[in-house]
Specification:
Length: 261
């Protein structure tokens, strides 16, 4: 394999893994650190911006998480132009959520301080989840799916359904809350659950897509080696056989590029 392509492939793989793991670990870390300090769970993740009397660890974790994930989504290059700008939009709005904190209530939130352009917080948060869901639905587009085979495509479709169900389950619960029992209506962390399910569903998309791409690339490498060996045997030359049996020097200009970055 071309060393440059191998380097790019590892870079994209690490970006996907880091995005998926961060979307799971960071929200849980924010909740855990805040609970250990304040002994309470806030109604939404956005409330953790104002959970401390002075900006400290929890606010840093909250804003750092959104800016970090946003940066990954902007840096990540999609499989085609549409896939790319969907992720870019999700990343930009994630950064907006961090930079423009929600409006707070001085009566209910004792550490409330005015934020910059707070009116942009809620639209940005909604758009983050909207573009994240769109990224799951698009799932790399036809360029990615065109390089996958039956079982790989089936796995990706199942993962897409599972991610979308997870991401929309919280929204359905929130919308249907007025029709449910009084105890559920008074459940104060419903929106927090919506947010966590959204992040976890998006994380599952990244992690399973990474696994499917790794599986497809292993298949492509094995096919390339098998074809090169068959070609070498047909030529009947021992020297050509030894040369063709090395994956790193076979079809460097063509077959290597069949792998998925």
């Amino acid at each position: 394999m071309d060393p440059l392509f191998a380097h790019l492939s590892r870079t994209y793989r690490q970006l996907r893994l880091i995005a998926g793991c961060t979307l799971i670990a960071a929200p849980l870390l924010i909740l855990a650190v805040s609970y250990m300090r304040e002994l309470r769970i806030e109604p939404t993740l956005s409330h953790y911006y104002f959970v401390e009397p002075t900006p400290g660890l929890v606010r840093t974790l909250f804003t750092g998480f959104l800016i970090f994930v946003g940066g990954i989504l902007v840096a990540y290059r999609g499989f085609d132009n549409r896939d790319n700008w969907i992720h870019n939009a999700a990343g930009i709005f994630a950064v907006f959520v961090a930079l423009f904190p929600k409006r707070c209530d001085p009566m209910g939130e004792p550490y409330c301080t005015p934020g910059l352009l707070s009116s942009l917080h809620l639209p940005s948060a909604i758009l983050v989840f909207a573009f994240a869901a769109w990224a799951v639905v698009y799932c790399g587009g036809p360029k990615l799916r065109g390089k996958l085979l039956g079982e790989e495509i089936l796995t990706l479709r199942r993962a897409r359904k599972a991610s979308l169900i997870t991401m929309t389950a919280g929204v359905v619960l929130y919308v249907a809350r007025p029709l449910l029992s009084r105890s559920i209506q008074n459940f104060k962390i419903t929106i927090l659950i919506v947010e966590l399910l959204g992040f976890f569903g998006f994380a599952a998309h990244w992690l399973i897509m990474t696994w499917v791409i790794d599986k497809a690339n292993r298949r492509i490498r094995q096919q390339r080696v098998s074809k090169s060996r068959e070609r070498a045997l047909a030529e009947g030359s021992d020297s050509k056989l030894r040369q063709s049996a090395q994956p790193s020097v076979i079809d460097a200009d063509g077959a290597d590029r069949l792998e998925i970055p």
